[in-house]
Amino acid sequence: MPTTLQDFDKKQAIRLEANFIVGIDEAGRGPLAGPVVACACFIPPAMASNFTEVNDSKKLSEKKREMLFQKLVGSVPYGIGFASAAEIDRLNILQATFLAMRRAAYKFSNLPDSVALIDGPYPAAGLTMRQTPVVDGDAKSLAIAAASIIAKVTRDHYMNILDRLYPGYGFAGHKGYGTAKHMQALRALGPCREHRRSFAPVGKLLNPSFLP
Predict the structure, then answer these.
(1) How many structural domains comprise the chain?
(2) Is 26 labeled as ligand-binding?
(3) Which residues pair with 188 in a beta bridge?
(4) For a Cys staple, 79 with which of 5, 40, 101, 111, CB 3.0–4.6 Å?
(5) What DSSP character marks residue 120?
(6) 131 belongs to a structural domain
């Protein structure tokens, strides 16, 4: 019988001697514009059976993500953390991601006997709660998968707002990723304040000799 996402979290709780498993994931490391957004999420074990459709956000349709997002944010504890484009440029994308994760996890900083499962190969620098990284965690852990959905949809909603604030770039469509349409708009309009100047496609527009 295959291990379910809920089973994985139960086994981690036993292995790590934790009463609470908090999943942490991010969205938006790769785009050329907008923030990186992290979510920390706790699924009470008694509620886990209500979320059997939860999976890695990348494997879900936009409609399914939105439906699960509404269900999750209406019923389970979670925290959201943003790191802005300016913070990404100042810190680098990895450190800005850790900053967003710390901000997201702050909600659970006083939760006793808790462990954060971090999606990816690295622990989140500076996190005050116990943690362990889980490679491909959003495909293994219910808490991480839930966090991946909340982070992704939250960021998508934010990019829809930026689309109205900065018309012409097409943020609502590509969410800041370096699509052909986005690059065409960048060349025509130049970067806006939400663009990551430390990312080569943007930096080279401002300075042809740019070195990342």
Answers:
(1) 1
(2) yes
(3) none
(4) 40
(5) S
(6) yes
> 3-state class of 115 per DSSP?
strand
CA distance 203 to 82: 22
Average pLDDT over residues 102-111: 94
Is residue 212 situated within a structural domain?
Answer: no
Q: Evaluate whether residue 137 is within a structural domain.
A: yes
Tell whether residue 119 is among the known ligand binding residues.
Answer: yes
Q: State the CATH number of the domain containing residue 43.
A: 3.30.420.10
pTM to 2 decimal places? 0.96
Q: How far apart are CA 200 and CA 212, in angstroms?
A: 6
**Dist CA 161 CA 155 (whole Å):** 10
The answer to whether residue 211 is domain-embedded is no
Contact at 8 Å (CB) between 9 and 3?
no
Task: Tell me: pLDDT of 125 over 50.
Answer: yes
Structural domain that includes position 166: 5-206
Asked whether residue 1 carries a pLDDT value surpassing 80, the answer given is no
- Of the chain, the percentage scoring pLDDT greater than 90 comes to 90
User: 153: part of which helix (H) or strand (E)?
Assistant: helix 142-165
Average pLDDT taken over every residue of the chain: 95
DSSP assignment letter at 158? H
